[in-house]
């Protein structure tokens, strides 16, 4: 059966974007590489067209349009730039910048979970974006690892969400994201309690986000205040090595030179223990 949707969509949005190859997507979403009119065809694609699933499985076009309006008003450094938004055959579509960087989901799949320092930095930047969105009365609606690009600098870009749900849904998703980044699993399995070396303040914050107090749920501003209180220090290489001990061999491979030094030091110590000096 011929899939005529890409051609129909290409013709419908031809004045705002030139569609290219289809990109992987899930949940009924269709995603295509795109360039803006006037972009050089020899350069990598600068944008992507994201077509949501048909409601009720996908978002209402009006909700996406409202979120895009808020994102444009903010021009926030941690939210992607959206060039255009519209409706196609009852489905919402956006043309957003394409960031050539792995998503958090891809980062975890390739290299293992993040260090505490890395995870806090990511959570802090997303919380800043949520504070700005929530103040405008907007919600993102889809904070999860596949929706967030992680740049080499450690900064993030959050893709356009459906704009549906509540502010508490956004914060609950932020807590779940923190658990995934630190443990590789969503809350309910081993959870953040199952991993050592997580500061108690961070552990408590993630638990409050995932299971909020119904009488006094947290606000994004309060979450950011807690995250800003964490010192902006780098994990020592030794901490990073042993922090990865329970995360599989991929993380140990990130510090091969350090591992050699540690093994050599243990070998020397063992030698002198076996051959004490007279």
What does this structure look like?
By secondary structure, the chain is an alpha+beta fold. The protein is 42% helix and 13% strand. It has ten helices and seven strands. The protein has helices spanning 5-12, 61-74, 104-111, 116-135, 167-183, 200-210, 220-228, 237-243, 249-252, 256-274, and strands spanning 18-23, 30-35, 47-51, 82-88, 91-97, 148-150, 156-158. A five-stranded antiparallel beta sheet has the order 1-2-3-5-4, sandwiched between helices. Strands 6-7 form a two-stranded antiparallel sheet. A hairpin with a 5-residue loop joins strand 6 (148-150) and strand 7 (156-158). Helix 5 packs across helix 6. The longest helix is centred in the middle third of the chain and has 20 residues, at 116-135. The protein is globular. The model is unreliable at 190-194 and 233-255 (pLDDT under 50).
Output the keywords.
single chain; 278 residues; alpha+beta; 5-stranded antiparallel β-sheet; two-stranded antiparallel ribbon; 10 helices; 7 strands; 42% helix; 13% strand; globular
